[in-house]
Amino acid sequence: MVDVKITDLRRKYTRSGLLDENLPENPMKLFNQWFKEALHSEVIEPNAMALATVSSAGSPNVRMVLLKGIDDNSINFYTNYNSRKGQDLAANPFCSCTFWWAELERQVRLSGTVERLPESVSENYFQSRPRESQIGAWASDQSKPVADREELERKFSEIESRFKDQEIPKPVAWGGFKITIQEIEFWQGRPGRLHDRIYYIHSSGKWNRQRLAP
Ligand SMILES: Cc1cc2nc3c(=O)[nH]c(=O)nc-3n(C[C@H](O)[C@H](O)[C@H](O)COP(=O)(O)O)c2cc1C
Fold this sequence. Notes:
This protein is an alpha+beta fold. It contains 5 helices and 8 strands, in the order αβββαββαααβββ. Flavin mononucleotide (FMN) binds at residues 45, 48, 61, 63-66, 77-80, 83-85, 142-143.
Protein backbone atom coordinates (compact mmCIF):
# COMPACT_ATOMS: atom_id res chain seq x y z
CA MET A 1 0.00 0.00 0.00
CA VAL A 2 1.14 3.56 -0.70
CA ASP A 3 1.50 5.39 2.63
CA VAL A 4 0.67 8.87 1.33
CA LYS A 5 -2.60 10.29 0.11
CA ILE A 6 -2.12 10.48 -3.66
CA THR A 7 -4.91 13.04 -4.04
CA ASP A 8 -2.87 15.39 -1.82
CA LEU A 9 0.25 15.19 -3.98
CA ARG A 10 0.50 18.59 -5.59
CA ARG A 11 3.45 20.81 -6.30
CA LYS A 12 3.35 24.58 -6.02
CA TYR A 13 5.02 26.11 -9.08
CA THR A 14 6.90 29.31 -8.40
CA ARG A 15 8.88 30.16 -11.51
CA SER A 16 8.48 33.21 -13.70
CA GLY A 17 6.79 32.57 -16.99
CA LEU A 18 6.77 33.02 -20.70
CA LEU A 19 6.12 36.65 -21.61
CA ASP A 20 4.42 37.16 -24.94
CA GLU A 21 6.84 39.92 -25.91
CA ASN A 22 9.82 37.55 -25.51
CA LEU A 23 8.44 34.73 -27.66
CA PRO A 24 10.37 34.05 -30.88
CA GLU A 25 8.66 33.58 -34.24
CA ASN A 26 10.50 30.31 -34.69
CA PRO A 27 9.81 27.87 -31.83
CA MET A 28 13.09 26.03 -32.45
CA LYS A 29 14.84 29.05 -30.97
CA LEU A 30 12.90 28.58 -27.73
CA PHE A 31 13.36 24.80 -27.85
CA ASN A 32 17.14 25.22 -28.16
CA GLN A 33 17.15 27.73 -25.31
CA TRP A 34 15.06 25.50 -23.00
CA PHE A 35 17.10 22.41 -23.88
CA LYS A 36 20.32 24.29 -23.10
CA GLU A 37 18.86 25.40 -19.77
CA ALA A 38 17.85 21.79 -19.02
CA LEU A 39 21.41 20.62 -19.86
CA HIS A 40 22.86 23.10 -17.39
CA SER A 41 20.34 22.32 -14.65
CA GLU A 42 19.94 19.43 -12.23
CA VAL A 43 17.74 17.51 -14.70
CA ILE A 44 18.88 13.87 -15.03
CA GLU A 45 18.99 12.84 -18.72
CA PRO A 46 17.52 16.09 -20.09
CA ASN A 47 17.49 14.45 -23.55
CA ALA A 48 15.08 11.71 -22.44
CA MET A 49 11.67 12.04 -24.07
CA ALA A 50 8.50 9.99 -24.12
CA LEU A 51 7.81 8.91 -27.69
CA ALA A 52 4.27 7.98 -28.67
CA THR A 53 3.51 5.99 -31.81
CA VAL A 54 0.36 4.42 -33.21
CA SER A 55 0.20 0.87 -34.55
CA SER A 56 -1.36 -0.15 -37.86
CA ALA A 57 -4.44 -1.23 -35.83
CA GLY A 58 -4.69 2.26 -34.31
CA SER A 59 -3.47 1.47 -30.80
CA PRO A 60 -1.10 3.96 -29.15
CA ASN A 61 2.22 3.05 -27.53
CA VAL A 62 4.55 5.23 -25.53
CA ARG A 63 8.10 4.71 -24.26
CA MET A 64 11.20 6.74 -23.45
CA VAL A 65 13.95 7.36 -26.01
CA LEU A 66 16.95 9.68 -26.09
CA LEU A 67 17.04 12.77 -28.25
CA LYS A 68 20.28 12.64 -30.25
CA GLY A 69 20.12 15.67 -32.51
CA ILE A 70 18.34 18.94 -33.17
CA ASP A 71 18.13 20.55 -36.62
CA ASP A 72 16.36 23.53 -38.18
CA ASN A 73 12.87 22.05 -37.81
CA SER A 74 13.56 18.48 -36.76
CA ILE A 75 14.88 16.30 -33.97
CA ASN A 76 16.15 12.73 -34.11
CA PHE A 77 16.62 9.57 -32.08
CA TYR A 78 18.03 6.07 -32.68
CA THR A 79 16.51 2.66 -32.27
CA ASN A 80 15.96 -0.77 -33.79
CA TYR A 81 13.80 -0.48 -36.93
CA ASN A 82 12.25 -3.92 -36.24
CA SER A 83 11.16 -2.98 -32.72
CA ARG A 84 7.55 -2.34 -31.83
CA LYS A 85 8.05 1.40 -32.31
CA GLY A 86 9.90 0.73 -35.58
CA GLN A 87 6.95 -1.28 -36.85
CA ASP A 88 4.46 1.36 -35.70
CA LEU A 89 6.44 4.07 -37.48
CA ALA A 90 6.70 2.02 -40.69
CA ALA A 91 2.90 1.67 -40.72
CA ASN A 92 2.13 5.14 -39.41
CA PRO A 93 4.97 7.63 -39.93
CA PHE A 94 3.78 10.14 -37.32
CA CYS A 95 4.70 10.50 -33.68
CA SER A 96 4.37 12.68 -30.65
CA CYS A 97 7.03 13.34 -27.98
CA THR A 98 7.04 14.86 -24.52
CA PHE A 99 9.93 16.15 -22.42
CA TRP A 100 9.33 16.75 -18.70
CA TRP A 101 12.03 18.82 -17.08
CA ALA A 102 10.67 18.66 -13.52
CA GLU A 103 13.46 20.71 -11.93
CA LEU A 104 12.58 23.58 -14.29
CA GLU A 105 8.83 22.96 -14.04
CA ARG A 106 8.71 22.72 -17.82
CA GLN A 107 7.09 20.41 -20.34
CA VAL A 108 7.61 20.44 -24.10
CA ARG A 109 5.39 18.38 -26.35
CA LEU A 110 5.71 18.11 -30.08
CA SER A 111 4.43 16.05 -32.94
CA GLY A 112 5.37 15.55 -36.52
CA THR A 113 6.14 13.29 -39.43
CA VAL A 114 8.82 10.63 -39.21
CA GLU A 115 11.34 9.28 -41.70
CA ARG A 116 14.53 7.25 -41.42
CA LEU A 117 17.79 9.17 -41.22
CA PRO A 118 20.17 8.49 -44.13
CA GLU A 119 22.18 5.28 -43.59
CA SER A 120 25.45 7.25 -43.61
CA VAL A 121 24.24 9.41 -40.70
CA SER A 122 23.16 6.36 -38.68
CA GLU A 123 26.46 4.62 -39.52
CA ASN A 124 28.50 7.61 -38.30
CA TYR A 125 26.53 7.85 -35.08
CA PHE A 126 26.76 4.07 -34.50
CA GLN A 127 30.54 4.25 -34.85
CA SER A 128 30.68 7.03 -32.24
CA ARG A 129 28.91 4.88 -29.62
CA PRO A 130 30.77 2.99 -26.88
CA ARG A 131 31.73 -0.56 -27.96
CA GLU A 132 29.47 -2.03 -25.28
CA SER A 133 26.44 -0.24 -26.73
CA GLN A 134 27.39 -1.40 -30.23
CA ILE A 135 27.51 -5.01 -29.03
CA GLY A 136 24.23 -4.49 -27.18
CA ALA A 137 22.56 -3.34 -30.39
CA TRP A 138 23.63 -6.60 -32.10
CA ALA A 139 22.68 -8.76 -29.12
CA SER A 140 19.17 -7.36 -28.70
CA ASP A 141 16.42 -8.25 -31.13
CA GLN A 142 14.51 -5.37 -29.59
CA SER A 143 10.89 -5.98 -28.52
CA LYS A 144 11.06 -9.76 -29.22
CA PRO A 145 10.62 -12.30 -26.39
CA VAL A 146 13.79 -13.77 -24.82
CA ALA A 147 13.82 -17.06 -22.91
CA ASP A 148 15.78 -15.67 -19.95
CA ARG A 149 18.54 -13.22 -18.93
CA GLU A 150 21.21 -15.86 -19.73
CA GLU A 151 20.13 -15.98 -23.37
CA LEU A 152 20.76 -12.24 -23.69
CA GLU A 153 24.13 -12.44 -21.94
CA ARG A 154 25.17 -15.42 -24.06
CA LYS A 155 24.32 -13.49 -27.21
CA PHE A 156 26.33 -10.51 -25.94
CA SER A 157 29.40 -12.75 -25.38
CA GLU A 158 28.99 -14.38 -28.80
CA ILE A 159 28.93 -10.99 -30.54
CA GLU A 160 31.89 -9.84 -28.46
CA SER A 161 33.96 -12.84 -29.67
CA ARG A 162 32.69 -12.58 -33.25
CA PHE A 163 33.98 -8.99 -33.58
CA LYS A 164 37.08 -9.38 -31.39
CA ASP A 165 39.75 -6.84 -32.47
CA GLN A 166 37.50 -5.59 -35.28
CA GLU A 167 35.38 -2.53 -35.85
CA ILE A 168 31.72 -3.41 -35.21
CA PRO A 169 29.49 -2.65 -38.21
CA LYS A 170 26.06 -1.10 -37.69
CA PRO A 171 23.34 -3.77 -37.68
CA VAL A 172 21.17 -3.33 -40.80
CA ALA A 173 18.01 -2.96 -38.69
CA TRP A 174 19.44 -0.28 -36.39
CA GLY A 175 19.36 3.43 -37.14
CA GLY A 176 17.87 6.84 -36.62
CA PHE A 177 14.53 8.47 -37.17
CA LYS A 178 14.08 12.13 -37.99
CA ILE A 179 10.95 13.85 -36.67
CA THR A 180 9.99 16.91 -38.71
CA ILE A 181 8.10 19.04 -36.23
CA GLN A 182 4.63 20.22 -37.21
CA GLU A 183 3.37 21.28 -33.79
CA ILE A 184 5.21 22.16 -30.59
CA GLU A 185 3.99 23.40 -27.24
CA PHE A 186 5.96 24.93 -24.37
CA TRP A 187 4.47 24.60 -20.87
CA GLN A 188 5.82 26.47 -17.90
CA GLY A 189 4.37 25.76 -14.45
CA ARG A 190 3.05 28.96 -12.82
CA PRO A 191 1.42 29.79 -9.49
CA GLY A 192 -2.29 29.13 -8.98
CA ARG A 193 -2.41 26.59 -11.80
CA LEU A 194 -2.34 29.46 -14.29
CA HIS A 195 0.42 27.79 -16.24
CA ASP A 196 1.80 29.24 -19.45
CA ARG A 197 1.12 27.23 -22.60
CA ILE A 198 2.52 28.50 -25.86
CA TYR A 199 1.55 26.46 -28.90
CA TYR A 200 3.12 26.72 -32.37
CA ILE A 201 1.86 25.05 -35.53
CA HIS A 202 3.68 24.97 -38.86
CA SER A 203 1.45 25.58 -41.87
CA SER A 204 2.00 27.01 -45.37
CA GLY A 205 5.71 27.35 -44.67
CA LYS A 206 5.42 29.44 -41.54
CA TRP A 207 4.92 29.12 -37.80
CA ASN A 208 1.68 30.32 -36.19
CA ARG A 209 1.61 30.90 -32.45
CA GLN A 210 -1.18 30.83 -29.87
CA ARG A 211 -1.42 30.99 -26.10
CA LEU A 212 -3.61 28.17 -24.76
CA ALA A 213 -5.59 27.97 -21.54
CA PRO A 214 -3.85 25.78 -18.98
C1 LIG B 1 15.63 7.03 -20.24
C2 LIG B 1 15.46 6.01 -21.31
C3 LIG B 1 16.02 6.21 -22.56
C4 LIG B 1 15.85 5.29 -23.59
N1 LIG B 1 16.39 5.54 -24.82
C5 LIG B 1 16.15 4.69 -25.83
C6 LIG B 1 16.59 5.02 -27.16
O1 LIG B 1 17.18 6.09 -27.42
N2 LIG B 1 16.32 4.13 -28.15
C7 LIG B 1 15.65 2.96 -27.92
O2 LIG B 1 15.46 2.20 -28.86
N3 LIG B 1 15.22 2.64 -26.68
C8 LIG B 1 15.44 3.48 -25.64
N4 LIG B 1 14.98 3.17 -24.37
C9 LIG B 1 14.20 1.91 -24.19
C10 LIG B 1 12.75 2.15 -24.66
O3 LIG B 1 12.04 2.89 -23.67
C11 LIG B 1 12.00 0.84 -24.96
O4 LIG B 1 12.04 -0.01 -23.85
C12 LIG B 1 12.58 0.10 -26.16
O5 LIG B 1 13.02 1.00 -27.17
C13 LIG B 1 11.56 -0.85 -26.75
O6 LIG B 1 10.40 -0.13 -27.09
P1 LIG B 1 9.34 -0.70 -28.18
O7 LIG B 1 9.15 -2.15 -27.84
O8 LIG B 1 8.09 0.09 -27.95
O9 LIG B 1 9.91 -0.50 -29.54
C14 LIG B 1 15.13 4.08 -23.33
C15 LIG B 1 14.57 3.88 -22.06
C16 LIG B 1 14.73 4.82 -21.07
C17 LIG B 1 14.09 4.57 -19.72
